[in-house]
TrEMBL record:
<dbReference type="InterPro" id="IPR013786">
    <property type="entry name" value="AcylCoA_DH/ox_N"/>
</dbReference>
<keyword id="KW-0560">Oxidoreductase</keyword>
<keyword id="KW-0285">Flavoprotein</keyword>
<dbReference type="InterPro" id="IPR006091">
    <property type="entry name" value="Acyl-CoA_Oxase/DH_mid-dom"/>
</dbReference>
<dbReference type="Pfam" id="PF02770">
    <property type="entry name" value="Acyl-CoA_dh_M"/>
</dbReference>
<comment type="pathway">
    <text>Amino-acid metabolism; tryptophan metabolism.</text>
</comment>
<feature type="domain" description="Cyclic nucleotide-binding">
    <location>
        <begin position="82"/>
        <end position="157"/>
    </location>
</feature>
<dbReference type="GO" id="GO:0000062">
    <property type="term" value="F:fatty-acyl-CoA binding"/>
</dbReference>
<dbReference type="InterPro" id="IPR009075">
    <property type="entry name" value="AcylCo_DH/oxidase_C"/>
</dbReference>
<dbReference type="GO" id="GO:0004361">
    <property type="term" value="F:glutaryl-CoA dehydrogenase activity"/>
</dbReference>
<dbReference type="InterPro" id="IPR037069">
    <property type="entry name" value="AcylCoA_DH/ox_N_sf"/>
</dbReference>
<keyword id="KW-0274">FAD</keyword>
<dbReference type="GO" id="GO:0046949">
    <property type="term" value="P:fatty-acyl-CoA biosynthetic process"/>
</dbReference>
<dbReference type="InterPro" id="IPR006089">
    <property type="entry name" value="Acyl-CoA_DH_CS"/>
</dbReference>
<dbReference type="Pfam" id="PF02771">
    <property type="entry name" value="Acyl-CoA_dh_N"/>
</dbReference>
<dbReference type="InterPro" id="IPR052033">
    <property type="entry name" value="Glutaryl-CoA_DH_mitochondrial"/>
</dbReference>
<dbReference type="InterPro" id="IPR036250">
    <property type="entry name" value="AcylCo_DH-like_C"/>
</dbReference>
Length: 385
């Protein structure tokens, strides 16, 4: 039984459908049979990385250096299918490709790109993106991590928090204040003074890794500074790539929850008839599919604009805000339709809803994206009073 009541399928190209089919098959084969166990035990499956790399999913929107060079829409479709498996798995691909690899591709030197991107695309090296700090989440301009020159090197001191993959990463893209403003540095995680500690226990994103990072006199050569990263515009460009992926990915979680609830309602009998035949059930399902398909149309529109080189930052904010809102509401309604059974890991809705609590917070909270949209409407910034 399809949930695509608007036939959005007809708006995709054959190649886009082929990408969807390949990633969906990977999720069905490698993720669905194990995700409940990974989530319950709070482990990220590192053994999955080679399969993700083999499918060309790491840095898939980048061209050259071993990257797949896929379109924005194809990238969005892939993120949607991965997040139908679990937000934590999609987060791995986003951190690796949209954040760490994009920082190197956009702002690194040719030597840095040649050294790191092929290894990262192949899953042989894992990267993380260290921007957020304990006291500087939504306001990265307030970061306290500093980098000072010492001869031909830089010395980094400070702390970062909620940094995905940091404890398993080989390379960290670290953003720090310098005498000339914010700059980006490539820090090998084996460097003396670099410590990454997983944040535990968590009630969300349990099949993923988020860490605290301590930087205590970490020495980085000038050759590891990102030469084209000047100011906060550089990390924000990377965040835009990740937010675009979220605008698609969250809808995968919502769709998976809806499909699970629909199947359950069709099989479950109450008062002598299928739960799906009840008016209130159908009203709930109708609202769920309406919200998801509206958000899907927006995501597809943003993808076409991105492929045409027309996408603007406030449009990405609209997509991220709309998709995550829709998806988390759908997952909560799906859990309710499942009744008491919905709180078990046999069903995906509550797991997805818990994960989406994190997704709505990272890469810009609801409030931040609301103010980005407000600024685009009024021409006035409301971020600082």
């Amino acid at each position: 039984m399809t949930t695509d009541l608007l036939d959005l399928e007809s708006l995709l190209t054959d190649e886009e459908r082929a990408v969807r089919a390949r990633v969906r098959a990977l999720v069905d084969r490698e993720i669905r049979p194990h995700i409940a166990d990974w989530f319950e035990r709070a482990v990220f499956p590192r053994e999955l990385v080679p399969a993700l790399a083999a499918e060309g999913l790491l840095g898939m929107h980048l061209t050259g250096y071993g990257c797949a060079g896929r379109s924005a829409v194809e990238y969005g479709i892939a993120m949607q299918e991965l997040e139908a498996g679990d937000s934590g798995i999609r987060t791995f691909v986003s951190v690796q490709g949209s954040l760490a690899m994009t920082a190197i591709a956009k702002h690194g030197s040719e030597e840095q790109r040649q050294t790191w991107l092929p290894r990262m695309a192949a899953g042989e090296a894992i990267g993380c993106f260290a921007l957020t700090e304990p006291d500087a989440g939504s306001d990265p301009a307030a970061m306290r991590t500093v980098a000072r020159r010492d001869g031909h090197d830089w010395v980094l001191d400070g702390a970062k928090r909620w940094i995905g993959l940091a404890s398993i990463a080989d390379l960290a893209v670290v953003w720090a204040q310098t005498d000339e403003g914010v700059r980006g540095f490539l820090v090998e995680t084996s460097s003396p003074g670099f410590t990454a500690t997983p944040i535990e226990p968590k009630l969300s994103m349990r099949a993923s890794i988020q860490c605290d990072i301590a930087l205590d006199g970490v020495r980085v050569p000038e050759s590891m500074r990102l030469p084209d990263a000047h100011g906060l515009r550089a990390p924000f460009e990377c965040l835009g790539e990740a937010r675009f992926g979220i605008a698609w990915g969250a809808l995968g979680a919502g769709r998976d929850a809806l499909e699970g609830a629909l199947a359950y309602a069709g099989a479950r009998e109450v008062f002598g008839r299928p739960l799906a035949g009840m008016q209130l059930t159908q009203a709930r399902l109708a609202e769920m599919v309406l919200a998801l398909q509206q958000a899907q149309l927006l995501a597809l529109h943003l993808g076409r604009r991105k492929d045409a080189g027309l996408l603007r930052p406030h449009e990405i904010s609209m997509g991220k805000l709309a998709s995550v809102r829709a998806a988390i509401d759908v997952c909560r309604e799906a859990r309710a339709l499942l009744g008491g059974n919905g709180v078990t890991l046999e069903h995906s809705a509550m797991r997805h809803a818990a994960n989406l609590e994190s997704v709505r917070t990272y890469e810009g909270t609801d409030e931040v994206h609301t103010l980005v949209i407000g600024q685009a409407l009024t021409g006035l910034s409301a971020f600082r009073g």
